[in-house]
Amino acid sequence: MAIVRLIFVTVKAEDAGAAERVWKNDCAPLMIKQKGCQSEELLKSTEVKGEFISYAEWDSQASIDRYLASADHQTIKQHAAKLKTEKPPVVKCYTLV
Fold first, then answer.
1. What value, to the nearest 5°, has the Cα angle with vertex 20 and ends 8 and 96?
2. Is the Cβ–Cβ distance between 10 and 50 less than 8 Å?
3. What are phi and psi of 5, to 5 degrees?
4. Which residues pair with 43 in a beta bridge?
5. I want to staple 13 with a disulfide (CB 3.0 to 4.6 A). Which of 24, 31, 37, 49 is the partner?
6. Can you give the pTM of this predicted structure?
7. Residue ranges with strand state E in 1-97
8. DSSP 8-state class, residue 76
9. Residue-by-residue pLDDT tens, the chain, 97 positions
10. How far is the C-alpha of 25 from the C-alpha of 8, rounded, in Å?
11. 5 near 93, Cβ under 8 Å?
């Protein structure tokens, strides 16, 4: 069963463009090549500038765990650390009912 992993992130409104570029150029290409990552999208709020959700579908928890232990995950964290967030990102996982 697929697992949807959501990362809720809010950056300062003036940094929204930079957040989109970091995701598109640095993070998404590394994520989508991970074994078990079926899709990776960035959702942008239509109501709050600077509010995003990283939406990734994974084939299993084992694939997520393997990714979290990878060098690519550390690289993504370094890219994301360049962005000044309003509060720490929140990660949640869901499955279909």
1. 40
2. yes
3. -110, 120
4. 53
5. 49
6. 0.90
7. 3-10, 37-44, 51-58, 90-94
8. H
9. 799 999 999 999 999 999 999 999 999 999 999 999 999 999 999 999 999 999 999 999 999 999 999 999 999 999 888 888 878 999 999 998 8
10. 19
11. yes
Class of residue 74 by CB neighbours under 10 A (exposed 0-12, middle 13-18, buried 19+): exposed
Q: What is the dihedral of CA 55, 59, 65, 67, to 10 degrees?
A: -70
The helix/strand/coil state of 92 is: strand
Give 6's contacts (C-beta < 8 A, 6+ positions apart).
53, 54, 55, 56, 91, 92, 93, 94
The answer to whether the beta carbons of residues 45 and 76 sit under 8 Å apart is no
Q: Residue 45 carries which side chain, given as an amino acid letter? A: S
